[in-house]
Amino acid sequence: MESNDLKGKRVLVTGGTKGIGKAIADELAQAGAAVITSARTKSAEGTHHFIAADLTKADQVLALANEIENTFGGIDILINNVGGLTTPGGGHSTLTDAHWQQELDLNLISAIRLDRILLPKMIEQKSGVIIHISSVAGKQALWNLNMAYAVSKAALNSYSKALATELADKGVRVLTVSPGATKTEPMIRFLNDYSTSAGITPEEGMKQLMAQTGGIPIGRMAEPVEVAQLVHFLVSPSAAYLTGSIYAIDGGSLPVVS
Questions:
Q1: How far apart are CA 17 and CA 21, in angstroms?
Q2: Where in the chain does DSSP place strands (E)?
Q3: What are residue 187's DSSP bridge partners?
Q4: CA nearest 91: which of 29, 147, 138, 33?
Q5: Which residues have a catalytic role annotated?
Q6: Cα(first)–Cα(last) distance of the chain, in Å?
Q7: Rg (CA), the chain
Q8: Three-state SS for 182?
Q9: pLDDT tens digits for 112-156?
Q10: What residues pair up with 248 in beta bridges, in sequence order?
């Protein structure tokens, strides 16, 4: 990728202070973009323009969009990265209405709200790219570990495809990136908690989890920067003909053709 191919582009990365989000923000800034990050709380390591926002709350989504409009006049690229697994495992009997709503608010509705409020300016300028960060769980749910999360990501995939079709002739591209196991703090924490509860080592826990999904043929988790590099390509001029597709970055773990 060219090191300056995003010069002059205004980018918002939600959940952009840690993990995959931070890697994306850093990667796109290095490519010349003016990067804005949002999260509930600011990280001490952040070097990009930061706006605090809880995107599960409609009023804070509106406040975020208003600050972006007043400070930057809009954005050119939106990375909907905020999300996560926040509900317990154990299957349907462990999940309450509140659990389902919590997961949908975080992983689906937050992106829908932000898209809706930022899209009019993109349509007006007849250009823009929206990336939804999903998960391979959206295509391969593990009932005992991530049922509500997987369902919310599957819904995000469907919404993203529909939105891409709607906007294709308006100059706005919409794409989905679905990481598999990625070496982030939440993933390491999840592995440690899972292993502790099972009375096994984190290495054994990783093997058990991977056995449920068929393993990772490449033999390791992804690094956040590898996801960021894929996102960089997809938002760049080199990907101008791409829209509506889901890109798994999973080391070959999804046992499906599509």
A1: 6
A2: 10-14, 34-39, 49-52, 77-80, 128-133, 172-179, 246-249
A3: none
A4: 147
A5: 149
A6: 26
A7: 18
A8: strand
A9: 999 999 999 999 999 999 999 999 999 988 888 889 999 999 999
A10: 178
Q: Is the pTM of this model over 0.85?
A: yes
**Which among 4, 10, 9 is positioned nearest to 71, based on CA atoms?**
10
The two tokens of residue 3 are 């090191």
- Whole-angstrom distance, CA of residue 45 vs CA of residue 18: 9
Summarised one tens digit per residue, pLDDT across range 187-229 is 888 788 878 888 888 888 877 877 777 788 888 889 999 999 9
Q: Is the pLDDT of residue 1 over 70?
A: no
Distances (CA, A) of 198 to 73, 101, 183: 51, 28, 21
Provide the pLDDT for residue 231.
Answer: 98
Residue 27 Cα to chain centre, angstroms: 15
Q: What sign does the dihedral 188-194-200-203 (CA atoms) show?
A: negative
List pLDDT tens digits, range 69-84. Answer: 999 999 999 999 999 9
> Any bridge partners for residue 173, and if so which?
129
Cβ–Cβ < 8 Å for 147, 217 = no
Phi, psi of 152 (to 5 degrees): -65, -35
